[in-house]
Amino acid sequence: MKNFIITEGIESTWHYHISFEDKPHVSLCGRKTMRTNLPMKSWGIVNEHIKERYCRECKKLMNVQKDTISET
Questions:
Q1: Cα distances (Å, whole numbers) of residue 8 to 2, 53, 71
Q2: What is the C-alpha to C-alpha distance for residues 63 and 60, in angstroms, rounded to an integer?
Q3: Amino acid 65: pLDDT
Q4: Which of 17, 21, 30, 45 would be 55's cystine partner, CB 3.0–4.6 Å?
Q5: Which regions of the chain does DSSP assign to beta strands (E)?
């Protein structure tokens, strides 16, 4: 099973996506990304000062991937 990681979009600071661990330079939604040290458990946490944003499309695609894997 492939592992998911949080990556940061190269187009905007603090705009996070989800990528496969072995492909950190492209998100599940197809955006160009770069590595970050955020653990998956921090997905969705918004700091009042920074106001991080999280890609909804990546979250949906990750859930579809998980469902597909669990069905096989």
A1: 19, 10, 30
A2: 5
A3: 84
A4: 17
A5: 4-9, 15-20, 33-35, 53-54
Q: Can you tell me the distance from the alpha carbon of 57 to that of 62, in angstroms, rounded to the nearest whole number?
A: 9
* Amino acid residing at 16: Y
Query: What tokens were used for 55?
Result: 């890609």
How many separate domains does the chain show? 1
**53 and 59 Cβ atoms separated by less than 8 Å:** no
The 10s digit of each residue's pLDDT in 8-57 is 999 888 999 999 999 999 999 999 999 999 999 999 999 999 899 999 99
Parent domain of 46: 4-71
Q: What is the Cα 8 distance to its own chain's centre?
A: 8
pLDDT at position 6, please? 97
Place of tokens 């944003």: 53
